[in-house]
Amino acid sequence: MMNVSEYIADFLVRQGIGHVFVVTGGAVACLIDSVAKDRRLAYVCTQHEQAAAFAVDGYTRVTGKMGAAIVTTGPGVTNLATGVANLYYDSLPSIFIAGQVSTFRLAENAPGVRQLGFQEAPHVELMRPITKYAVLVADPSHIRYELEKALYLAVTGRPGPVFLDIPDDVQRMEIDPERMAGFEPPPAPTKDLSGLSLQVDEALRLLAAARRPIVVLGAAVKIARQQAQAIEFVEKFGLPTALTWAVWELLPTDHPLQTGGFGVSSTRRGNFAIQNADFVLSVGSRLDTHATGTPIATFAREAKKVIVELDAAELNKFMSGGMRVDVPILSDVRDFFVALRDKFTAVQVGDITEWRAKIAEWRERYPVCLPEFRESRGSVNPYVFLEMLSEETAPDDIIIPDCGGNLIQTYQGYRLRRGQRIFSAFNNSPMGYSLSGSIGACFANGGRRVICITGDGGLQVNIQELGTVAHHHLPIKIFLFNNHGYGIIQQTQDDWYGSRYIASRPQTGLADPDYVKIAEAYGIRAWTARSHDDLRQIIRLTLAHPGPALCNMEFSQDQRLHPMLKAGRPIEDPNPLLPREQFFREMLVKPLDSSLCED
Fold first, then answer.
1. The domain boundary residue, chosen from 343, 365, 387
2. Nearest to 286 by CA among 229, 218, 231, 225
3. Nearest CA to 95 among 64, 63, 57, 125?
4. Region for residue 119 given its phi and psi (left: phi exceeds 0; alpha: psi -120 to 50; beta: otherwise)
5. Rounded to two decimals, what is the model's pTM?
6. Rounded distance between C-alpha atoms, residue 77 and residue 58, angstroms
7. Which domain range does residue 278 map to?
8. In this structure, what CATH number is given to the domain that contains residue 336?
């Protein structure tokens, strides 16, 4: 015999979970006590439930296994929601467990009452839209069934988080695990892959006719654990490859087939490549509007398109949005690569020597870090910093940018090496992610160094987690892009609101504390870099310092993303605009009317 809380702790261990991120509370004290008593589990206290969920996110990405968090009722769950949404939109399996008021205090016992128990909230209703499965376990005999069902759903089909709501009294109830019914997964449907085989044949026919092909690889390649198969395919046939941010680490930045990032806030060279292609094979990317620009019909507009996607709704959105998809393939990425591998001997690729040379030419002609950036005086340029950081990091470092400007600049300017990891919370993209995500990543990788890149705005959102970092003496190196405001919002305000920086600068109401003093108050060593003169030395000091460290880099308030698309133009034509004659020379397809003039 054991109680429900003890059974949950044992279940987590049996799933290979080694750490549980927690914020305690009255309705969950029993459950966390059981986790603490199980010596096979380690619990990590964060200072806020949102941070616990962000830590689960980082933990899950690094381990490739499910992460777990436990929080209390009411505000504990509402605080959790942003992080759960991260995992849902990025399709990452994880399990969240919350305490709830005792069953006899549930509002369902008093119809019409908003809240019966203290801190009660409708957890399941709140979590259902952002989880694969959310359930209240009011009967202790159902705990085995619900845990097993939740686990199955979290990893089946398109993965995602699951949520279990456990009332306080249920946590304490005795159960006999041997007498509880388990969940029986439905039989796996029989797959008829004959249609897939024919679609792959058609895709290969289009590839053979192409002279400017591009392969796009997206997050589902990693989710399906098909990274090696994807790399084998593009390298075997020498196919230029555009990586979405979610799989940026598949090819190092200097790989000759890596075309560079594409989308509304990526590199010129990458956007010239994808937009001038005559064939695009997209595998495992949902190609959201951040990647395609709007309207989506302008994306790779003269290319034959083959899109491999597991989710029918994601495929259908292209047709409804006016983008032609020549071969839509509704398939799991693994099944696609199995079918493709069987046809390797039949793959024919035309002479694309000139195309690869053109992509290499764009790489040289349009570097991210421009010569004039190095001439900055009295402040640090982010692209110069990222170039230096790339040269100083180790081959096994994990790099975690936050959101907004620092996220974009990192993916534009950091030169990723083979063996390094880089990720963020891409689709929900909340401020404050990187510090807490770094905590999860650090516990996941055995306490090795993690590089946390954040802005002053993002650090403020979960600044309390400096306490968690300091308490555990985690070797998280925080590089702070401090432009004293919300730079990416100011860029929008430049474009559309007459450079009225309302609520985005200290001069218009935004708080601007001294981050070095705050870090030092937590016992974290900190330095400030105000120019390029001592920047490299401070980077080295930060990286070499044992335990946590913070490097505060003073950026100009007028620092802007470079390049960055302005709404109304296709992704190959971002600001600052190239001279039209130069732009037209780069276009191998017909420019759109919106690109004919420089205004």
1. 365
2. 218
3. 57
4. left
5. 0.96
6. 19
7. 194-365
8. 3.40.50.1220
